[in-house]
Design goal:
Chain B: It holds the Pfam family SBP_bac_1. The complex is a heterotrimer. Chain A is an all-alpha fold. Chain A has 15 helices and 2 strands. A two-stranded antiparallel ribbon of chain A has the order 1-2. The radius of gyration of chain C is 23 Å and the shape is globular. Classes of the chains: A mainly alpha, B alpha/beta, C mainly alpha.
Chain lengths: ~325, ~450, ~280
């Protein structure tokens, strides 16, 4: 169940929001528009910043302290230096990087599926609901299913044994386990992303397709040169939230399948934050790790924004 | 909806009763503030508020019955019980936040050991409240004392005799393989050779192990280590009297990792989760299974008399050969910011009475009483009865590692137990990592 | 329409492929649905087989014993109000950021992003202390406020993208007709963005519906408990009662699925409006 709250809590790489209108000359009535715009954006801004400012600053403060929430001892950057030199943090961070492989895979599948559904394949409404089901299902059920399929006596191993191979213990080998989890992530995640992409597709002016069809352009060509450029922003959005998701919300999913093991071979950073924030009496290191993670994802998000914006200009 | 109506009804009655009490006291003219109607709020982390595994009969769970019995004699005090969720970490986070804000419950019920000690800042010392005479009747007080020191303040009342790690035997399967269905191991090595006999006879795995999370390893390693370190093995490590990275701990890990190499275990031992473990044993995948006395109800329900049990056996050359690993799980604490502290303490005193705890034992049938005056005749489950008898004569009872330590160390411990089992971590590295984690937590 | 762009011979293998994919999803749902109707003992003996006897016991335990009934209604209240608030404020803010270029747009979006990138686990204590100081802990308001604040950035960003694809010409035309801000948003922008709004509504609703941690922590009183925390009471430390959990999941999943089914219609409507522009 983590996938959804995750995706809904993360993001808003909205500083990607360069306004097309800003290129226009500034007429007086446009200046009035801008004031109205400010008033329209204000409620959301006040709710978000007003509500979150104190908790965020408080968390930042905690990250410079050794504290159990009652007694505070200012330790400067000690929490940060401990985190940065902790070999476990390095290992877990590398795991996260490996899990990034799921991002292009999820997006590839969600593009294909959303475009096909958008073509109104027979029963598309039913498919749309079915593909979304994993998000409603809870990760526990998904975990159980993948564990039974890739388990030692599971379907995959039965096939391997039937063709004369040796059974493979997928979940006790770190790198194999990562692959199984990636497959599970793609399987359970594409429906959610496909919904987002479909809503982007529905905004494309259909006359563009009709013109292209008359020109005799093939399906793949139309996908590459018309459909994809038109949903560039949605793709960027989906890409960014998936990268974020990989760093902030994989824990629950992985915990069901491998419990983060063997050892820490499939443990992710968000689990470490969880552990440090909940499992320890000292709140400082958890907060410091969260701040570092924040800085890293922030940088990553800015880079991705640049990337998708550059694509938009050509 | 029915529960809601019941709640409303109870609340109405309670209010009426309270106001009646208030009226009568004001008439007599001598109403002190202690007699004023008040409500004591309890947060129970799923420990005392349930009768059985399905949670269907919450309103007549032990805690609810105790509360209403108490109210019958203390009309001015109403006990309100809030059941918290199954997630230990979330509960801990909630209680911590509420305690810092000062708006937590009057009584908090949590696990003994680490989860109790980590909140020592917010708990009242109960030694004065309950008094020497009462406390001398209790077992397991060391599990809830500050720093596990005999003179440390008593942070909670330990409730129930606790749960202990056990080995379960499927008598039918043993019999079918031509082995003694009433087999009892004399040592760890003896247990392995019994498994070897079963494997030779049937060609099937002898041990059913579900060690995905490392829980089984946690139980076995703790028990085996206690064989060399005795009953204060882990509390001493916590308080710094001894270290975790010692040859004795390393030895326990080595034995545990060698166990995997015997090839007598189900092939998927490293990937079966604890939640599915009972299932595998019930399905008869192997005749010998590691779990604990918390499984009594289910085992008896499924196997009746066709299941045997023993505590985890010690190694042949162990210093202590008669060991049970486990201890009380339930701890009842009074918060020091409570506005109804006197009333809360009154209720804890009531819970400490032997008869009250007998009711708990009778309803739960998962553990005996922590009070020496407890009535053993209320135990109906034959497995529990046998265990209670056996515990009386057991020489060494060790409070296990995963109860004693802080949460972060426990979590690492589980992982290392899983990975040493699979040979991915060496025993030496495991004990070093644990020591480092404990130092970091306490440093 | 776009359906012309894929030829008939390609449609059959694609249809089969999608069916296989769908089957891989239907299977666990089937597994779940069956498990919800059997006893724990029956399930443990043969998890994958058919039940020997069917029972509604699990549902009655979850509904009555765990108080899922009233919790269900409370969840609907809290989550619906929060979803509506998010959609309302996000529509205004999203439209503004997409089309009106308000001063400080970068600061607004930048702060949204920053706030949302912080892993939520470390915010639990400060958020609790904040709401406690405001006297809101234990009230539904606290959760509505929290859900609105934490879900707005995603919603604003997503709607900004959708509104940006509306052509400036029809907005200018509306302005020439004398339409003010509310009329432009309500009569022109929102109808075009209906597919996005419908999608967003489903996703936000589902996210809040399944949220566990804050729902548990901010409403400590079990007479006010929401559905997801109520269902999380099922199961103990070492016990896993899959049939009960399954029954709980079926109850929990029913509302988001229903919502998704209902919104399918609006996605189609949105398409037809979009294509007529």
């Amino acid at each position: 169940m983590t996938s959804v709250p995750a995706a809904s809590k993360v993001v808003g790489a909205a500083d990607a929001a360069p306004t097309a209108t800003s290129l226009r000359p500034t007429a007086p009535w446009r200046r009035r528009d801008r004031r109205i715009g400010l008033a329209a954006a204000a409620p959301a801004f006040i709710i978000v910043v007003g509500f979150m400012m104190y908790p965020v600053l408080y968390a930042l403060f905690i990250s410079f302290n050794k504290t159990d929430g009652v007694d505070f001892e200012w330790v400067w950057f000690k929490n940060y230096s401990n985190i940065l030199t902790d070999p476990l943090v390095h290992q877990v961070f590398l795991n996260n990087v490996k899990f990034l492989i799921s991002v292009p895979l999820v997006i590839f599948f969600s593009i294909i599926v959303s475009v096909l559904l958008f073509e109104k394949i027979r029963g598309w409404k039913t498919f749309r609901i079915i593909f979304f089901l994993p998000n409603v299902l809870s990760i526990v059920v998904i975990g159980v299913m993948f564990k039974s399929i890739f388990g030692y006596y599971g379907a995959v191993n039965s096939i391997i044994a039937a063709v004369g191979g040796n059974r493979v213990s997928f979940f006790t080998d770190g790198s194999l386990a990562i692959w199984v989890i990636v497959i599970a992530l793609v399987w359970s995640g594409f429906g959610y992303q496909a919904l987002l992409i479909m809503s982007g597709l529905s905004a494309i002016d259909t006359s563009v397709f009709e013109a292209a069809a008359l020109d005799g352009a093939g399906w793949w060509r139309r996908l590459r040169w018309i459909t994809l450029p038109n949903i560039r922003r949605e793709l960027g959005f989906v890409f960014i939230i998936n990268v974020l998701y990989t760093f902030t919300s994989l824990f629950g999913f992985i915990f069901v399948m491998t419990a983060g093991g063997p050892g820490y071979a499939t443990t992710t950073v968000d689990y470490l934050v969880y552990l440090k924030a909940f499992g320890s009496e000292n709140l400082g290191p958890g907060a410091a790790l969260a701040v570092l993670l924040f800085l890293f994802i922030g940088l990553l998000t800015i880079l991705q924004n640049r990337f998708f914006r550059i694509q938009g200009n050509d | 909806m029915r529960r809601l109506r019941t709640a409303v009804a109870v609340l109405t009655v309670a209010t009426l009763a309270a106001s009646a009490a208030a009226c009568s006291s004001s008439k007599s003219g001598g109403g002190t503030s202690a007699d004023a109607p008040q409500t004591v709020l309890i947060w129970d982390t799923g420990l005392l508020g349930k009768t059985n595994d399905n949670g269907s009969a919450k309103s007549d769970s032990f805690l609810h019955q105790a509360a209403s019995n108490f109210h019958a004699t203390h009309k001015n005090i109403t006990i309100k019980i809030v059941e918290q969720g199954g997630d230990i970490s979330a509960n801990a986070a909630q209680f911590k936040a509420a305690s810092i804000a000062g708006n937590g419950p009057d009584i908090h019920i949590q696990y003994t050991g680490g989860p109790t000690l980590s909140f020592s800042k917010y708990f009242v010392d109960l030694s004065e409240v309950l008094g020497k005479d009462t406390l001398s009747q209790f077992n397991g007080l060391n599990t809830v004392r500050k720093n596990y020191e005999p003179s440390g303040s008593l942070l909670a009342l330990p409730y129930g005799s606790g749960t202990y790690f056990t080995v379960w035997y499927n008598k039918k399967l043993l019999k079918q393989a031509g082995l003694d269905p009433d087999y009892q191991p004399t040592s760890w090595q003896d247990l392995i050779s019994e498994g070897q006999k079963y494997h030779t006879a049937t060609g099937k795995p002898a041990f059913y192990v579900a060690d995905l999370e490392g829980y089984v390893g946690a139980w076995v390693v703790a028990a085996l280590a206690a064989g060399n370190l005795g009953s204060t093995a882990f509390t001493d490590q916590y308080s710094g009297k001894t270290k975790i990275n010692t040859p004795a701990m390393q030895q326990a890990y080595t034995t545990w990792s060698n166990f995997f190499k015997t090839g007598l275990i189900n092939k998927d031992a490293g990937e079966v989760s604890n939640g599915d473990a009972d299932q595998g044993f019930i399905q008869g995948k192997a005749p010998i299974y590691f779990s604990g006395t918390w499984g009594d109800v289910g085992m008896y329900q499924k196997f009746k008399d066709n299941v045997g049990w023993s505590f985890i056996p010690m190694e042949q050359d162990a210093k202590f050969s008669d060991v049970a690993a486990g201890g009380p799980q339930v701890a009842i604490s009074v918060t020091n910011y409570s506005k109804h502290q006197a009333a809360a303490e009154e209720f804890v005193k009531y819970l400490a009475e032997p008869k009250t705890q007998d009711l708990y034992v009778k309803l739960g049938q998962t553990e005996g009483s922590s009070n020496k005056q407890g009535d053993t005749s209320v135990i109906k489950n034959p497995l529990l009865k046998q265990q209670a008898e056996k515990l009386k004569t057991t020489q060494t009872i060790v409070y296990p590692f995963d109860n004693v330590m802080p949460q972060s160390v426990i979590d690492l411990y589980y992982r290392l137990d899983a990975s040493t089992f699979l040979g991915k971590t060496t025993p030496q590295s495991a004990v070093q990592q644990l020591q480092a984690a404990l130092d970091a937590e306490q440093g | 329409m776009t359906s012309q762009t894929l030829n008939r011979s390609a449609r059959i293998p694609i249809f089969i492929g999608l069916c296989v994919l769908a089957a891989s999803i239907i299977y666990p749902v089937y597994f779940l649905a069956i498990a919800a109707f059997r006893t724990q003992l029956d399930y443990q003996e043969n998890p994958l087989g058919l039940p020997r006897q069917w029972t509604l016991h699990n549902f009655s335990v979850v509904w009555n014993g765990y108080g899922a009934g009233p919790a269900f209604l409370r969840s609907i209240l809290v989550v619906s109000v929060s979803t509506c608030l998010v959609l309302l404020f996000a529509t205004f803010a999203g439209y503004s950021l997409a089309k009106l270029n308000p001063p400080g747009a970068k600061i607004i979006t930048g702060s949204f992003v920053s706030v949302m990138l912080i892993p939520s686990q470390v915010l639990i204590l400060p958020i609790y202390l904040l709401l406690s100081a405001l006297g809101l802990v234990g009230s539904y308001t606290s959760l509505m406020l929290l859900y609105t604040a934490t879900n707005l950035p995603f919603a604003v960003f997503f709607l900004t993208l959708s509104f940006r694809s509306i052509s400036d010409d029809i907005l200018d035309a509306a302005k020439v007709d004398g339409a003010g801000f509310f009329r432009t948003v309500g009569r022109v922008a929102v109808p075009v963005a209906i597919p996005s709004l419908a999608t967003l509504a489903v996703l936000q609703f589902l996210g809040m519906w399944n949220e566990l941690l804050y729902a548990l922590i901010l409403l400590p009183d079990d007479s006010k408990r929401l559905l997801t925390p109520a269902l999380s009471m099922i199961g103990q430390r070492y016990v896993n009662n899959q049939p009960l959990v399954s029954a709980g999941l079926l109850i929990a999943a029913s509302v988001p699925i229903l919502l998704l089914t209902l919104t399918s219609r609006y996605v189609v409507e949105g398409i037809s409006i979009g294509s007529s522009k």
